[in-house]
Amino acid sequence: MRVGAVRVRWLWALLLPVTLTGCAGLPTSGAVHAEQPINNAAAPHVDVQVLGPVDGQSPQDVVNSFLLAGVSLDDDYGVARQYMTATASAKWQPAEGAIITGAGDFRVAAPKSGRVVVSAVQQAVLDTTGHVSARVPGVRFNASFGVTKVRGQWRVSSLPTGFRPWISDANFQQVFTAQRIYYPSASSRVLVPDVQWYPSAGLATAVARAVLAAPPPWLRGVLRTPSQSHIGLAINAVPVDPNTNVASIDLTASAQRADAATRTALWAAMTASLTAMTSNLAVVPSVTRVELTVRGNRLAAPHLPAQPMSAADLGYQVASSPNAALIIRNGSVLTRQRSDASGPLRGSGDTGATPARLPVVGSKFYDLSADASGGAVAALSTDRRSLGVWVGRTLHTVPTFAGNLTRPTFTGTTALLAGISGTPRRGTAASGAGVWAADTTAGSRIGARRLSVPWLGRSVLLALKVSAEGARVAMVVQDDEGRTSVRVAGLLRDARGAPTAIGTPVVMPVGIASISDVAWLDDATLGVLGATAPAKGRARGADQIALVPLSGQPEIVGAPSGVQNVVSGGSGPDDIYVLDHRGSVWTRQGAGWARIPGADDLAAPGT
Fold first, then answer.
1. 15-31 burial, b if ≥16 CB within 10 A, otherwise e?
2. pTM passes above 0.90
C-alpha cells in the first residue's frame, strides 16, 4: 500500500445507471427573432444503484465506497450501512440534507492510526429545509473516518460529527427533484413560490409537509402560513389514488380551528404545490386535485368548490411573470414590443385591452421603468438626483429626496428605488443610504417616503428589483469596503398594502464578482450582472451574467462587453436583455447575443 494521499479509482463500487422502465423506486437591421432557441430542458433522468462490500477491500476502498453508497436512500441508507460496523451503524442517525460534491473527485489518504482522511470539492449543500446553497467553486474540504477490521474485513467504525451523506452533483440531479412550494401572501390573495429539493420517494408527503412548515426566514412577515396555527399532518403519509390522481391529506384537529382565511389559504397552497409536483421518476404519480380532511371529514372553508382543481378556484393567483409587452425607447419615442418565453422579441404590437398611451421622454431622463399596465412610466434624471414619473403623458417630477439613485422598480403603482440622502464626508463611507417609495397615483402631490431597512447599516444598494407578485425584493448590496453581493428579502406592507420595510435578507451564491445589477428572470430565478475577477494588469474582468435559482447552483453565461444593466420580461432564462454604456440594447439569442436595432433603453412593465 502506498503511503500518502492517493486518488482511489472507482473500482467495483461504481454507480450503475439503469433506465427507468418500470423501475420503482442578431441581424443589424429588421425585426429581431430567435435563430436558435436555447434548450433548457434537462436530459432524461436515470435511477442509480450501488453495490455492497466485497471481501478484500482496502480501508480506502471501504470508505470511498461508503461515501458513494450515500446516493441510495432506500432502507435508511441500507447499502451504505453495510460498509459500517454494527455499532457505528446503530449510532448513525443520518442528518437531513446532503453534501453535493464534484463527480469522481474524492481523494482518500492511506489510513493512519485507524483513520482515513478524505477530501472532496464541496459544490453545494442541501440543508434540512430542502434548500440548496452553492459554495465557493473549487474549494476542497477534509473529513476523517474511523476504520477497523470485522471478521477480517475493513469497515467504517466512526463518522465525522454531524455527518451528512455525500453525493455527486450528477447523481443529486437524478435522485432529488426541485419542487415549487407555494405560500399565501399575508397582504394579497397571491401564492408566493419557494424552491425546495426532495427525493422522488415519498414526494407527495414531503411537499405537503413543506407547505405546513415554517417558510424560509427571509420571507417571514410577508406570508400567511399554516404553521402559524400549528397545523400538521395527522398521518405522515399522503397517498395519491392512481385512478383519480387525487392526493388525500389528513390534517391535525388544529386545522379545523384555524380562521376561515387560513383554511382557504391552506387549500390554495396545497392545491398549487401538489398539482405542480414533478419528479425524475416516471412511476411517481401526477396530482390533479387534493382533498384536505381532519379525522376523515373534509376541511371546511368559505365558498369551497366541490372539486377545486387550481388555486384560482380558491380565489388565489399563482405568482407569475407580468407577461406584458416590453417598452422600447428610441430617442424620446417609446413603443411596445411583445416578449414571450419562446423567443425574446416577436415584432411590434400590443396585447389585451387598449394600452395606455406612452409618453415622450426627453434626453434629460433615462433608466426607464413602468408599472404592469404601462400607464405609469418612471425614469431618472441624468444627474441621478431626480425621479420623473409620467402618468399617461403627464410628467410629474418628484421633489429631490436622495442622490445616486438606482433604476426604479415597480410594485403595483408604487415605484421603489434606492439612493443616498446625504453627501459622504471625504474618507468615510456613504451615509444616509436607503430605499424610497413613490406612489404614482398621487399625481402632482407625488413624493417619496422612506422604507425601513434596518439591516442596511453603512452599506448601499446598487440595484433592486421587486418580483412580479410584489412580495420579494432582489438587491445588489455594496458594503463599506466595496464588496458586492446579491440578497433577496421580503417586502413588508401595511394594512392597506403599501410597502413599509424590507425584511432581513439572505445572501445568494452568485459565482461572479463586481456585481452591478439584478433582474427576476422568472418567479424563482435571478439574472445577475457582474464580471470575472480581473486578470493581472487589467482593471476589470469579462462581463458575465449568472442565472441564479433561489435554491440551486448558478449557471454562468457570457455577456457583451461594457454591459451596465440587465432587464427581463420575467418568462425565463431566455428572456434576458442587457444595456451597455454605448446606449445599445442586446437580447439573448441562441448561444450568443444580438443587438436590437433602434433601441437605446428598455423597460419590462411590472418589474
1. beeeebeeeebbeeeee
2. no
